[in-house]
Amino acid sequence: MYPEFFVAPMRDELTRLGVVEWRSAEDVERGLSADSGTVMVVVNSVCGCAAGRARPGVALALQHGVTPGVVATVFAGADIEATETARSYFTGYPPSSPAVAILRNGQLIYMMERHQIENQEAHAIAGQLTAAFDEHCAKAVAG
Q1: Domains of the chain
Q2: 47 part of the active site
Q3: From the candidates 39, 49, 50, 74, which is the catalytic residue?
């Protein structure tokens, strides 16, 4: 487990954007309940692709006009139980960090794994996330 003084600046990169930290299994369970709506979970990490690609990509994506109702984060290697609990919702995907998942009412509807993050720049990651937001988070307009 990483010491808190080491991961605190990396946590701050997301929390200063309004991303909610889930630091316990209970936080994750509450946040991903059956009536939670659309939630994006960022699995944060100390690796270089989290620093140079994932966190900046998420920051850019969150400037989009359509975003999930809740954006939360767990920190791999620091919030062990929270991360394991979040990953238990990522059905069909092996553990990956960094990673970004979008769930609706506790059901996985979109997943971006590490191998998709480490080979792209932040703007490309943001583009994929905003496309996922448009597809999965936009509210239907009666017409």
Answers
A1: 4-123 (3.40.30.10)
A2: yes
A3: 49
